[in-house]
Design goal:
mainly beta; Immunoglobulin-like; Methylamine Dehydrogenase, Chain H; 3 domains; 1 helix; 39 strands
């Protein structure tokens, strides 16, 4: 043993020395840590959120926020992390941070409510009106469409478009409503006697769409509107008809010009009116629905202070009578057979006219004309036979302004307006009243009397078909107020306002 030790002792000592030397040089770095803490709040209102799960990537600890929304992750090895905050019904939030030695990374996380789960139904189910194959009832021109959300529990996240097609030939359709949440919509202003197809298209927030099928309904027959008048809207005058029911007000003209003086034909099939669409007032006719528009005259209604109102129908409806400066013409309703029948007195023009019917054969057929001098208050009313003969002066140039002569249905009287002795170079009238006079010039009677509102004018008076009522327009003296249409008994009593913002009335079968 001694010999062995003596021989190998130096080598053993050398190995041990090397081993000890190597252990002293091989060191391990200590683990270094920081920490993460913070608060989670709602993005709106900054309300602390309890129960939010906070995790890290790379993974460390997973913690949940307390009632104050606070979380704390201790002893997090230094390095870069992605912090994730998650809670049901809220969008996940991810924030990148760096953890350093002995440092606490403090953060605030704001979370948003997740959008509702928007599902899109396979089909839109309609409720009303029923499809035309199931329900033949004709509807008004205001129709309430009703449908439901389809098979989705959260239908309030769906948005609906309402589309209508005017008959089978309408391939484009009209979108009456877009992106509405309601499942009802009332469509207004539809046409009468028209079959419409309607459908609903649904869309969710992800822009997924479902297109409903087509259903049909038909609107009611065209109403028998007995009142004709002119309305001024934004400087454009147009002709309307109405039976005083709310949804039966119908605009008959929309030609871009000023359409005035509607007059129903004796057979109540056509309406004559004058329009300055061409730059001057010409006479046109149309049917009672506003269709089949035809220009009748080729030379205009024109003369001193004549703004398109100087014409009338013949009693049989075959002709129209109108003034062209100092000439009075008749013309067939279709524009043929124009014939001059009378000359105005020297220095005067024809402004307004009316043509009586021999309703009960107690009087002869006559024409009444209002002639106009250069000044708007220079007026006279004449009567003549239908061929222009036997012209005689019925109402002389009274002080004030005369206007709108009109026969009673039996032809025995004429009504007209006359203001209170006021003569204005611009044509302004003050306190105009409605008068009647027999066709023989007797019994001049003030029908308005004291019944109207002071400071207003009664103008444009016309008898009803049976002669039991008079319809007229009332307006303030300055002409700037609201024009309204009234009726009264033939003795001036029982005044009743019918229509606001209207003038130039005519009526039939009201």
């Amino acid at each position: 043993m001694n010999k062995f030790y003596a021989l190998f002792a130096p080598i053993f000592t050398l190995i041990m020395s090397i081993s000890l030397f190597s252990c002293n040089e091989s060191t391990v770095d200590p683990d270094l840590y920081g920490s993460i803490s913070g608060t989670v709040k709602t993005s709106t209102g900054s309300i602390p959120m309890e129960g939010v799960t906070i995790t890290t990537s790379p993974g460390t600890s997973s913690v949940i926020t307390n009632a104050e929304g606070v979380f704390d992750i201790g002893e997090v090895p230094i390095g870069d992390y992605a912090i994730s905050a998650k809670k049901e019904d809220y969008t996940s939030e991810n924030i990148n941070i760096s953890v350093r030695e002995d440092q606490n990374v403090v953060m605030e996380i704001l979370m948003q409510v997740a959008p509702l789960d928007s599902s899109i139904p396979d089909e839109i189910f309609y409720v009303s009106p029923l499809d035309i194959e199931e329900d033949e009832t004709k509807l008004s021109t205001e129709v309430k469409l009703t449908w439901n959300n389809g098979e989705t529990e959260k239908g309030d996240t769906l948005y609906f478009d309402v589309i209508l097609f005017e008959g089978a030939d309408d391939t484009e359709g009209t979108k009456y409503a877009e992106n509405i949440l309601d499942t009802t919509f009332t469509v207004k202003g539809l046409k009468f006697e028209t079959t419409y197809l309607w459908k609903i298209e649904a869309q969710n927030k992800e822009l997924d769409r479902t297109e409903g099928k087509l259903w049909r309904f038909t609107t009611e027959d065209y109403p028998s509107n007995g009142y004709l008048f002119v309305k001024d809207s934004l400087g454009s005058r147009d002709i309307y008809s109405w039976d005083l029911q709310e949804n039966h007000l119908i605009r008959l003209t929309n030609q871009g010009g000023s359409e005035v003086q509607p007059r129903i034909s004796p057979n109540e099939k056509s309406i004559a009116y004058s329009s300055n669409e061409s730059g001057v007032y010409q006479i046109y006719t149309m049917d009672t629905k506003g269709g089949n528009v035809t220009q009748v005259t080729s030379q205009p209604i024109a003369g001193y202070h004549n703004d398109g109102i100087g014409y009338t129908w013949s009693p049989d409806g075959d002709q129209l009578l109108y003034g062209h400066y100092g000439d009075l013409y008749s013309i067939n309703y279709n524009g043929t057979g124009e014939s001059k029948i009378a000359d105005a007195p020297v220095g005067r023009h024809f402004k307004q006219c009316d043509w009586s019917d021999h309703f009960n054969f107690s009087t002869q057929e006559k024409i009444a004309v209002l002639t106009q001098g250069e000044m708007p208050y220079d007026n006279e009313i004449y009567l003549m036979d239908p061929d222009g003969s036997n012209m005689f002066l019925l109402v002389d140039n009274l002080e004030g302004t005369l206007s709108s002569p009109h026969f009673s249905p039996d032809g025995s009287k004429i009504i007209f307006s006359l203001d209170s002795l006021y003569e204005d170079d611009n044509g302004r009238q003050l306190d105009a009243k409605i008068y009647s006079i027999n066709v023989d010039g007797t019994n001049l009677t003030n029908l308005t009397g004291t019944n109207k509102t002071a400071g207003t004018n009664d103008l444009q008076a016309r008898y009803s078909e049976t002669g039991g009522k008079i319809i007229f327009m009332n307006v303030a003296n300055d002409g700037e107020g609201i024009k309204s249409i009234w009726t009264m008994d033939t003795d001036g009593s029982n005044r009743e306002k019918l229509i606001d913002n209207a003038e130039m009335p005519d009526w039939y079968n009201p």
